[in-house]
Structure formats: structure tokens, C-alpha cells
Fold each of these.
Amino acid sequence: MNYNVAIIGAGPGGYVAAIRMAQLGLSVILIEENKLGGICLNKGCIPTKALYSATKLIERAEDAQAMGIEFTTPVIDLEKLSSWKEGVISTLVDGTAALLKANGVTVYQTRGRLEGTGRVALSTGKTVDAERIVLATGSSPIEIPGFTFADPHIWSSDDALALREIPRRLLLIGGGVIGLELATIYNRLGSKVTILEMMPEILPGIDLDRRTIATLKRALKAQGITVRVNTAAKSIEETSEGPVVQIGDGDAVAADRILLAVGRRPNSADIGLETVGIEPDRRGFVPVDKKLQTSAPGVYAIGDLVPGPMLAHKGSAEGLNLAASFVGQNYPLDYQTIPQAIFTDPEIASVGLSEARAREEGQDVIVGRFPYAALGKAQGMRETQGFFQVVADAKSKRLLGTQIVGAEASALIAEAALAVQNGLSLETIADSVHAHPTLPEGLKEAAEAALGRAIHAVNR
């Protein structure tokens, strides 16, 4: 079997690359040993956000009482909730399969690994020859010393999303994106949640300003979620009342289930890298150049397999970039302007530089903020926590970055991402008429504040 391109891995990077390459006239085979859509669609982004949306209803039912509307106490049918979640996933998997078929992509649902230059060996015994090979094998949850997923008390994110039970006491090891999102979901479901983060602050490694983090931490505390930073899990002990995690100095935390969410590792092992002379780095990432090519001619890598933020849309963008380059076209890709959305309560979304990072880089900046509490729409929604923040170059007024913490931040960041990616100015945003009353007005108002001409806030 001969193809222009063979892609190993059908996650957001692999299947998007396959569709675009086929649209551009290339013959493409997509090889995936599990379900189409990869971790994101089946055990990550989609089920997490589906459960985030579902459990938000529990919170809204409680809020409704303050508005004069009362419901009976919500009853959680875990089996039905899980079935609904699986239905969402199934619909999207089927849709992905239909799109691949409609675009003429050949799909093999089997395991594939490199077998020398231009060749992929399939677990069926067949081999595929291709002019170019794209590795898009994704990543897997990390274990830490003393804590293994083989322990029945320890969950991975996959286990947590399976919705087998609602533990009375849930201990999360890891205060990153995955841990905080799952903490939000299980707290709403009724678990008593404690988060341990060994670093000085939650969401380590993400370029967020202290004000944003502080706003989230206050909200987590108000929701009853305990956050302990500078706290490492040392060991686990079995007791008659369940597992107890030692955290040093004689201190310990008891739990019914322990969710290990300390990060993910690239799936670079056992995919045949050695057959073409590729050596992953010490963390398992596959080094690539600006064209996403590995050290082996004709072999490329995208998504979680390569350095950079482990975001589904980053992998998709790399797939589109690669497809364009294969036919001599250009698809711009600037890693500094890739947005991120974190589904906590309140949500956090960001794009570009934080105020702190911009100043560290020596840039002269101006900053504008606008609180949700001053938005009529937010007041009507009873969603007044949070703020919009814009950071711009002081001279040119070009928008450098935006952070939004508050309701629907994940959707609201799109306008800011468009502005940052296209080098738009604060004036462009401030002078653009926004519908009223809406939440997007907050970005316009923040731009006005940065320019010193705020209408609905006091200029400082």
C-alpha cells in the first residue's frame, strides 16, 4: 500500500491533518489503534466539558433560589449521566469517521509503528509505504514514585471521567488544568475535594497574572474546595478507613479516592523511532524543526508528541500548518498567540502575554481591566465574579495579551485571540460597537480603560 502521507494517531492533530491533506489532493492513510478523535474526544476535552456543563446545572439550581425560583433538590443518576456523556462522545466519533470518509481518507483502526524510512508496520502484519510519515500519537497520564494507577484507590483522569462513583472524599494530587477541572466537576457532584500542589502556586507553568490566580483561589475556597500549595504527596498508606496520603512533617490527608493529575507524558515509546534514528528528549518529546520535521527525513511530528502546550487546538493547528507546507502553501502558526481555556468555576481564558511576562521582557505596557460586576448581563446571570484584562504596547497600543476570568471566558477569549493574532490595537477593539447587554462588552470596556477613557468604570 503506497500513499503520499501516512499518519499515526487520529487525535485532534492527526485527523485534522488527514482531512486537510486529502482536501489538498494528497493520498492519505490514517492509522489509529483506538477510537477516532484520540484522547481529547474520548477521554479528555469532550467528556470533561460535557460533565462541566451538566454539573453546572446543579449550581444554577441553587442560584435560582436567590432569583425567586425554587426546584426540588437535584438527584444525580450517575449511570444516566455517564450514558449521556458517552452519547456525546459517540456522536462526535461517528461524525469524525464520516468526515474522514467524505474527504477520501483511508482509515485503518490498528496499531502502527515506524519500520524504517518511508514505512509503517501495522499490527495486522501488513505494511504501509508513504512519501511522508506524520507522528501524532498523543500523550498519557504520568505516575509518580509511590503512586501507581495499579492501586485500586488511585484514579487517572480516565478513571475519573468513567463516572463509576462519587467518592465522599476525593484527594487530587496536582493543581494543574486537568486536576482543577476535575475538582470542579466532582465538587459539584458532592465530593469533599482537597487539592495538593507541590509548586508554590496552582496552574504552574501557565502564563497567568497573580490577580487571575487569586480570583480563582478565592472562588475555589468559597465552593468548599481545599487547596494546599507547596505540598507534595510523599506516600500512601492503607488504613481500615481507607487510604491516607502522607505529605510530610507527620501531616496526612485521608481520602476515599486519590486522583493523580500531575501531568502527561508524550507517547513516544514503542512507535519505532529508533528505526529511523530519532531520539526523544529526556521528557519523551520528539524534537522537530520549524517545519515540524524530525531529525529523520520525511518523518514529521505534531501535537502532544512535540514540545509546547498540550492543547488540542495546538495539535490541530500544527496539522493544518503541516498540510499546507506539503503542497507549498502557508498556514501561519505563532505559538505565542495560541489561546487557552480552563474550565474551572469561574472559567479562565488567556491569549498572548500576561502583564508580568510582558514587563519581564522589558516591554513598556499599559493595562486595562473591567469587572464582570459592572456588566448588566453578568448581573442578570448572577455571574459577577471575575474581570477582563488587556495588556498592550504603550506606544503603538497594539494588544499583546488578554486574560479573562469569569463566566463563559472560554468563548469570550475568541475575540481577543483574533485581535492578538492579527496585531490589532486597543482603539480597534474600543471603537468596535458591541451588542448590549452582553458579556463581550467587557473586553471593549477593558480596552477603553487601558486608553484612559472608560465609560462604565472610574479612570485611574
Amino acid sequence: MHRLILLFALCLAAPAQAEDWQAQARQQDVVLKNFRFKTGETMDVTMHVTTLGTPHRDAKGNIDNAVMVLHGTGGTGAQFFRPQFADELYGRGQPFDITTTFVILPDNIGHGASSKPSDGMRMSFPRYDYDDMVAAQKRMLEEGLGVRSLKVILGTSMGCMHAFVWGETYPGFAQRLAPFACNAAEIAGRNRVWRKMLIDAIKHDPEWNGGDYAANPTQSRETVADLLMLAGSSALAMQTAYPKREQAEVLLAQYQANAAAHQPDANDTIYQFDASRNYDPSPGLEKITVPVLWINSADDFINPPELGDAERQVKRMPNARFILIPASPETKGHGTHTWAKFWKADLERLLAQPAVRP
């Protein structure tokens, strides 16, 4: 989920953090030498990764307590320190208890402190896609962390889609999959349209200058931010919290001010939203035989439940369960995926399931 969508979710409710999880984390960069993109281009790629907890090795010396959590479009691993996620999962006795679990939070290609267009290559950066991003995650795990098996991949939004790519491309590497807030189908219809609107808004901005701008373009900034607000919002929650015109307009003004102060690089944003262009795991879902917990929310603009995709496709995976979280004044639209209170108990049940060898 994009950082501006996260900002909007935090405008609606920002719980106090009980513990400073970031202070307990370890940061490192893993350099993937001669990483080959699907375009055929090759370059050294840096993957920034944050970890919590300590790796445990079994009798054969293999790390056996690793889990990986994957962020959404425009996000970073650091977003999973927010209290609505971290305080529910990382403490003693919780699903990702860091006294017993090795939690891996990467910044994906094109995001955060990992290699991205704004590092200097701009629009000459290889035009990566989700397959490239997942391949880089795998090399980061194996070459940088010595991890060759995961108890679970929990992915949110774009990370949800990555989880499906993982399940088909590297069957069994992750013993379980928890894809939250996505569909396992081509990005088409309204979902592609609003993404293309966002990309075009930047490219049609004269200040963008083909990607060779001296300062981040400003004319398209508000359009991009507004599209992200609509995509990430919940109609019911907003109507309940802001039932008067004046209240809604104050919210919008606050959001736009925050968005202006946290505007991401324009080229990075183009690449991030374009990376989903050829995503479509639907032909190979039968390859996914490990336990799957697939969760969407009924108030998600990006993955509207009326399409019925998940209900049809979950039947093609022999150990998959789909849950649709009902819309309420408490749900967060697309951002429901990062509020663990809505799905924590289901995650615990998934982790209790025995691993299935593909």
C-alpha cells in the first residue's frame, strides 16, 4: 500500500504505540551482484532489509523460524512497525513473537532504501516487474540472510500479489502463504484504469520533463495524492466519521497538506505502479498446494468484492481459505490489511496448520 494511503489511514485513527519495535530491529543492505532483470538488463541491485528476532538453526544447520512480511506499492518494511500491526504480532505469545521468530521485512526493488530510479538512473532504471521483485527477494533471503525456507509469507496489497507469485514460482519455499488485500488475476478494469490515470498524471506534467527534472514535479502532486486517497478509503468509515460537508473538506485539506510534505519521487512512483502491468497468477493457481489464508475487505476500492474473483479462485488451491472482512465503521478500506486485529486469530490458525510438501 502506498505511503500516502497509509498517511490517510493514520489520519482516521492513530493508536499509541506500546513498544518501540524499530529500536529492536537490525538493518542491513544485501547487494545482489549481476542481478538479471526480465528485460535482459543486468546490474548490481541493493536490497535493504530489516529484521527482528534471531535466526534459529535446526539439526542440519538450516534456519527454521523465519517469516517474511511484504509491503505494498510505495511502502517499505518500516511500515510494519506501526502499532496496529507490530503491537499485535511481535510480542511474547503473539503470532510473530520475536523471542522465537526471525521476522524479515524487506524494502523491495524500487522502494525505500533499496535500488530505485531516484538513486540516479531515473527512467533508465530497468523496467522491473513483480517477477523481478520476487526473484530479488529470494536472492536476498538465500545470499544475504542464509534463509532457504520460510514458515510463512505474509503480504499486503502488492505484497499480497507477490505471495501468489512466490507460491507458483518457488513452490514450498514458503510453507504457508497469507496474501492480504489483492486478487489473483490480471490488473485490468477499474484497477488498471486508476493506476494508469496516476501514471499519466505524472507523465503529462510539464515539470516531469521525461523524467529528467531538477525538482520533483509539483503540478501532478495533488492529482496523485487525491487518487491514492480515493483508492485507499472506505466509504462507510468516512461517512460515519465525517458526516458533514465541512468535516469532509477539513479532512481533505489535512490529508493534502500531509501528502505535500511526504511526496514520493515521481519516477519511483511511475515504476512502482507500472510494475503490476503483467501480473496474472490465475493460470497457475493449482500449483499452490501449501496452506493459504487469503483475506480481503468488503470496503476495498482496489479489490471490490462484487467481482467475486477470490471466491472462485480459492477453490483451485487445495489448502486455501478465503475470508472477506465485512465493511464497518471500524474497517479501513484497502488499508484494513495492516490492522492485525481484524485477522490475527486467523493468522494464528494458519500457523498452527502443518506444512504441506508440494
Amino acid sequence: MSRPAPYRRKAMEHHAKRYGIGMLFMLPWMIGFSAFVAVPVGWSMFMSLHKVAVVPGGFKYDWIGLQNYRDAFLKDNVFPIELITYFQQMLLMVPVIVIFALLISLLLNQKFPGRFVYRALFFLPVIFATGQVLSELFSQGAGDIPFLDQYNLEPLVRQYVGGELAKTVMEVLGRIVLILWYSGVQILIFIAGFQTVSPSIYEAVRIDGASPWDSFWKITLPASMPFVSLNMLYTIIDLFTFPLNPVLKHIRDNMFKVDTGYGYASALAWIYFAFIFALIAIVTGLFSRSMSKRRGRA
């Protein structure tokens, strides 16, 4: 049975008013996104399909299609190697940072005197070690780990992981300071996630005789899985925008070369973005499938 026309009209007016108010609140963000994100991103895609040259009157654009993308893999001998090498390093560092943040957050979630101070100490590098400050610290050797050379660990690493991955593992170990500097936000997210678990659940399992180890595997870790996926995504984005990223440095260098310029650099940036987007999609898909299976079992 169809509803009367006046009722349908009032319902449409109600929905339009409700969504209109919501769109009004979103309007400042939409204007800012269009002006500062959408337009630059679209212009970058436009330049990646052109040969961009700086001329006295401004910029000259010559349409070359996908030639810049082909040159990135067929003519550039540096970009593919740096891209693959850096991805290998990040695939090792991301889980290490997330696991480290999970373990530290478990400790900082306990009740002990001065835990607020320790939480602040782990978060301080997030505030100070960013951008130019981080670059200056690394240029002065603050990020180096002397025990790697002191104890000659490279032969031992080669023995256990093989020659192909030894260089990547050694570079990750050499950046172990980044694990401390880049885990502050993840630690806070995990601590906030632990607060979502009711203390009565832990009291119930303690009464049933469960050990702290059992509580972690059966309660804490399953409840933290959404926050694990969130921290994985955050860490991926954070590390791939790292100021000392060699891939980003290669892109910046090509921006100011006469034979490459803005067009080729834009193509490199889009290739880099595609790799990051694919990795994020894979991680999101894996965690979504895991969470759906867990809900199905429940």
C-alpha cells in the first residue's frame, strides 16, 4: 500500500533538511579539500602525462601519455631498486614497531607509580623528532647504533637469513632508534584500546583460574585486533612519508632536473602512491577477513 503524497513530500523534506544540515557542517572541509587537496592531486596527474619544461613565460606542457611511467621502470636504473629496497625494509619495520608498541602499552597499562611520566616519555619523540628536526638528528649521527659495528653482527645475520635479506635486515637494525621514536602514537592507541575491555571480564576469568598469559591470548589480544589494524595502517603511512625516505628524495631530485622535471617526478610520485595504496588495501583486506571470521565464530 503506497503512502499518501503529502506524507512522502514531508518525509523527503525532513531527509533533505537533515542531510542539508550535515552537508553545511561539512562545507568548510569540502572547500578546503577541493582547494588544497583535490586540485593539486589532479594537477599532479595532469603533469605526469606531460613533458613539463620551464620556459620564460611559465611552464610548457607537451603531451606524452604514459611515457613517464614507462621510463620509470625501463630507463631509470635507480628508482625501481630504491622502491623495492625501501618496501622490503618497511615490511620488516612495520610489524616490529606495532609489536613493540603492543608490548610497551601492556606494561604502561599496568598500575604503578609514575606511569603517566613514562607514557609522556614514549610520546615526546613524536612531538620533537619530526621533519627537519629528525633530519638534523640523523645528520649528526643520533640515529646510529654503534653496537652493530662494535660486535660485527653482519656475518651472523648473513648466516641465518642469507645474503639477499642480510642487507635489508642490517639496515632495519641500524634504524632501530626509529622504533622508539615512531611508536608513541601506536602506544597511546593501544592503551586507549585496552580501556574498552571491561575490568569485570578480567575479574571473571581470574575467578575461573585463568593465568595472565591466558587472559592476554583469549581476551586482550582479540579485543585489540581492531587497534592492531589501525596501528598497522598508521605505521605504514607514517614510515612511507619518512623525511629521510630515499624514494621521496629521488622524486624531489628529479623535479629540478632539466631532462626529467615536474612531469617525470609526478609520475614517480603516482607510482609510489600506487604501491602504498596496494599495500594498505592488502592489510585492510586481511584484517577485515580476520575480523569477519571471528564474528562468524562468535
